[in-house]
Amino acid sequence: MMEVGLNHFLVVSTLLFSMGIYAIVTRKNAIMVLMGVELILNSANINFIAFSQFGNRGIDGNLFGLHGHLIALFVIVLAAAEAAIALAIVLNIYKTLSTVNIDEIDNLKD
Question: 98: left (phi > 0), else alpha (psi -120 to 50), else beta?
């Protein structure tokens, strides 16, 4: 039987991070860009939890703390606040300009 180790978590995190960067760079829709940011934050959370779980082992194998878990919880709260504020901004832009395409939103500097 195969045991899931740190490398498996790092591969999943790398894939999520890559998909998030791809979504930010290639998409023109503001909602899709926000989804890419959420993917990047989730990949960071996977890293925090994995390194907290596998990296802080003592001599007897016990965990020294839950620092990575607490940081991941903080990132989740931060992501929820970011999503609420960003969606409010996107809805306001749509109400004003009738579009959410990033390329077409250049009237904000006026």
Answer: left
Q: Which regions in the chain score pLDDT beneath 50?
A: none
Mean pLDDT computed over every residue of the chain: 85
Q: For helices 67-97 and 30-55, what crossing angle results, to 10°?
A: 180
Angle between helix 30-55 and 6-26 (nearest 10): 160
| Domain-wise residue ranges, the chain | 6-109
Cβ–Cβ under 8 Å, residues 44 and 20: no
What pTM value is reported for the model? 0.81
3-state SS, residue 105:
coil
* Contact predicate 80/34, CB 8 Å: no
Tell me: domain 6-109, CATH 1.10.287.3510, correct?
yes
